[in-house]
Specification:
globular; alpha/beta; 5 helices; binds zinc ion; five-stranded mixed sheet
Length: 194
């Protein structure tokens, strides 16, 4: 499976848009906001969209994506979105590009936050739960709760993670387990970066 970030070249602040490609299937994990739309609309097709949580910087382009590609959309709380979507619950499995990902409900940054984990490859999509270099999601917004965030990071810390792809910042493809531990320590100690 190929994974690339479609966000990042525009001027607007946006969440990452992880573009997964394999087995004739195209998946987006979050769809970003603003001029990152320009990199999405160049795709040939989008079959599935997973929303890690419903903050605008992750979902703002969703209506345009649905209009152009008509994909299946999945989220923990579909009612928070402006398009029709299917519900994902804790423990569900979803097949993306031929690989099975397990859904973890990970509140603390926002109530409808999820992470998706593949035990085959050790890949996790973490949304705004954790970021590279010991970063973690801010908990000073609506629905933010530091204790819940710490519990959620502990769920991910128990997994055998080889790489993670978060809602902001670069992919972490080396020493991912160490990075998650650093995020957990930092969440217990200090104020967030994002
Ligand atoms: Zn967020």
């Amino acid at each position: 499976m190929e994974i690339e970030n479609l966000a990042g070249n525009g001027k607007d602040f946006t969440g990452n848009i992880w573009h997964l490609e394999a087995s004739d299937e195209t998946v987006l994990v979050d769809v970003g906001t603003g001029d990152s739309w320009n990199s999405i609309k160049g795709l040939e097709e989008v079959d599935n969209v997973i929303i890690t949580h419903s903050h605008y910087d992750h979902v703002d382009n969703l209506e345009k994506v649905v209009e152009l590609f008509d994909p299946e959309v999945y989220a923990y709380e579909p009612e928070n979105l402006k398009v029709e979507a299917s519900k994902l619950s804790e423990g569900d499995s979803v097949k993306l590009c031929g690989e099975s990902f397990k859904v973890f409900h990970t509140p603390g940054h926002k109530d409808d936050s999820i992470c998706l984990y593949s035990s085959d490859s050790g890949i996790v999509f973490t949304g705004d739960l954790i970021f590279p270099d010991g970063g973690f999601g801010r908990t000073d917004l609506d629905e933010g709760d530091r204790d819940k965030l710490i519990e959620s990071i502990m769920k991910i810390n128990k997994l055998d993670v080889k790489a993670f792809y978060s809602g902001h910042g670069e992919a972490v493809e080396e020493n991912a387990d160490r990075s998650i531990k650093a995020s957990l320590q930092a969440a217990k100690q200090r104020t967030p970066k994002y």
